[in-house]
Design a protein that fits this description.
The structure is a single chain. The chain is mainly beta and 413 residues long. 8% of the residues lie in helices and 33% in strands. The chain has helices at residues 4-17, 39-44, 261-265, 305-310; strands spanning 25-29, 54-58, 63-65, 68-70, 81-85, 92-94, 100-104, 109-112, 115-117, 125-129, 135-137, 140-142, 148-153, 159-161, 164-166, 172-177, 184-186, 189-191, 195-200, 207-209, 212-215, 221-225, 236-238, 241-244, 289-295, 321-322, 328-334, 339-341, 344-346, 348-349, 356-360, 367-369, 377-379, 384-387, 404-406. It has a 9-stranded parallel β-sheet with strand order 1-2-5-8-11-14-17-20-23. Helix 2 (39-44) links the parallel strand 1 (25-29) and strand 2. The longest helix is centred in the N-terminal third of the chain and has 14 residues, at 4-17. It is elongated and about 70 Å long.
Length: 413
Amino acid sequence: MMSGGVFSFLFSVALFFAPHAHAATLITVCEDRCAYTTIQKAVDAIPAVPLDAYVIEVRDSRAYEEAIVIGGKTTRATRTITIKSGDGASPTLLAPSNQYALSIAVPYVVVDGMQFSGNLRSRANAVKIAANNTAIRNSRFHHFNEATLIAMREVEGNVIEDNLFEKSRYTTAVSVAYYGGMNMIRRNAFLNMTNGVVLSESVRGNVITDNTFLLDGSDDTAIASKVDLAHTRASRVDRNRYYLARGAAAGSVLDARYPTLAEWQSVTGFDANGETITTPEHPDFIPWSIVTKTVCANGCDYATIRAAYDAIPSAVPGVAHELMTSNVSYVIEVRDNGVYDGNLVINVLTDSARTFTIAAAPDFRPTIRQDNFGKGFDIGSSYVTIRGFFFPGGQKTNQFGSAIFIGGSDVTI
């Protein structure tokens, strides 16, 4: 049975997202031939008392390194502010260290189709919501480090839907704190986040439903409560899907009472405050794959090791190369006895499940031509394997020269 409070919340959400008769005023942002070159200037151009809805459309795919603040506007359900990507564009809001890329201090703000990246900077956060009735949807959050991606405190009626949270370290995806209530978190994908969703400090009436949580078996937590769920006052947690990578034992799934997925599966369906929690499905593993790119003088994917490495996708300039998807390990295989230039800096975002390998194919022993200081591979990442190469030495060496320099952990030579 759905409570009256939750029903009223869902009804207000429907009204918020219903089409309105008022036409929206369009403001364009891009590097060239748009009204503004920064998102903050576009926000500042909106009057303090808007007479209609405003849409800020970002029309290119570059990285916007800003700490955007949306405040001081008298918005209403028919006078919203939307920040969205333009057709075919994939803009990124690049968060500065110790700041939020976007701070929302007025209601009725929508973010649609954007990317957020922390560039692996420490405590570079994504979105701070300090207002009611906002929506974050169809967006991707990646490459954060020691961060909170969406932070809500003392707010109600916000919707977090259809987003992807991935490739981040020591990070909480969504935090609802201090009497935050009636917020909807639905249809999101949380891939190996340290914490997927955290409820704390007597939040109430939130709905967490139809999400997908992938846990890699380290210290990840899908849904956590920093206090007993009895204090969350009838938050609804149901129809979520939990996937445990490669059958590993995960961390706390719901809260400290259920430290493993096996225990969570055995839950009777009721938590301490009597709210129903639907027991989700737990496959032992999900499909994983290895992408192999070949290197040789003729007939391979690439003619050099460097070209194969440079082809690994990078989310935004300056970000470590990311593996092709969250479930893929990457192999560069050299299939001849050729001589290849060294001095290759290896900086890929890896973990124990998503590894990176550069190896000679069976029956081949290619040579790595070291630079003048004797350097062949400079490994800055963990879970990297180098196998089957010959290093003849550089033309000049000194006490700091090395064929392979290792700056990561769990590296295999």
